[in-house]
Specification:
Order of helices and strands: HHHHHHHHEEHHEEH
Distance between the termini: 50 Å
Strand content: 5-15%
Helix content: 40-55%
Largest sheet: 2 strands, antiparallel
Number of strands: 4
Radius of gyration: 19 Å
Number of domains: 3
Structural class: mainly alpha
Oligomer: single chain
Number of helices: 11
Strand order of the largest sheet: 1-2
Length: about 260
């Protein structure tokens, strides 16, 4: 039986995985106010995305880029475009793309937080297709996949979970041909962006360190507080932490000023 507050997983990942290079190619083409249909037309006119078929362009633009970055009146795309144009560290940009990809694909979010990090910290540090398939089988048993996907789709999504990790360079083949985990270390710019994004979405100060998005980077609440204290020492915010009481004084009134601080 599905928990009432947990929506069933979708198969969107089978149409659009990490799309890191594709997103970096689309951001310069996209302009604020442009719809997914507009962007598809620009892609076809300019020959962007190489020799991608019309179906593939639709998957990349409509099922990937648009659903991740054209939400909330296109604000994520606007912010990413500004960050890229201002020269933000490319690794930080990729981490923010990873964040949005995981948020939109909850099956990937939960696989990263529930399986990837456990395997990354194991003795072997390997992540296998069996790990992905077992995760999907458990999700089926718990009601997150309902009705049950066909075996062929279970197989595809298992592959694409691993493929998305590869896209974000979180796994690589070792000399034995096995997928070795490369746990990401959150960058200061990513942490500052994420903290403010949660704040501007109405998350209370005391709930920010326990938000599940930090788990994507393997961070526990104490780790998050330590990161926020470091950002406070750099003048980006002020933090008061007294046991159960956590109060943050936010220096920047909107995400645009956060972006300015990150890129200057």
């Amino acid at each position: 039986m599905t928990d009432s507050h947990l929506a069933p997983y979708t198969t969107n990942l089978s149409k659009a995985q990490g799309l890191v290079s594709e997103t970096m190619e689309l951001l310069p083409l996209w302009q604020p106010g442009m719809s997914a249909a507009d962007l598809k037309n620009i892609v076809k006119q300019t020959g962007a995305l190489g020799r991608a078929t019309d179906t593939r362009i639709t998957d990349i633009v409509s099922r990937g880029f648009a659903q991740r970055y054209l939400i909330e009146d296109g604000r994520p795309a606007t912010w990413l475009k500004r960050l890229v144009e201002a020269g933000l560290n490319r690794s930080a940009v990729h981490q923010i793309l990873f964040l949005y990809t995981a948020r939109h694909n909850e099956v990937f979010h939960d696989f990263v937080t529930g399986v990837f990090w456990r395997k990354a910290l194991s003795d072997t540090g390997e992540v296998t297709k069996e790990d992905a398939r077992d995760f999907l089988e458990r999700a089926t048993a718990s009601g997150r996949i309902a009705p049950r996907w066909a075996d062929s789709m279970m197989e595809r999504v298992s592959r694409y979970l691993l493929g998305t990790l590869e896209d974000f360079r979180m796994i690589r083949e070792n000399r034995h041909g096995r997928r070795q985990a490369q746990p990401p270390v959150i960058m200061s710019e990513t942490a500052l962006f994420l903290a403010h994004d949660l704040h501007f979405h109405g998350v209370e100060d005391r709930n920010i360190p326990v938000h599940k998005d930090w788990l994507l980077f393997g961070l526990m609440p104490a780790d998050v507080i330590s990161i926020l204290e470091k950002e406070a020492s750099r003048g980006h915010l002020e933090i008061q932490n007294a046991g159960q009481l956590l109060r943050i004084e936010w220096k920047y009134p909107d995400i645009e000023q956060v972006i300015d601080a990150l890129t200057h």
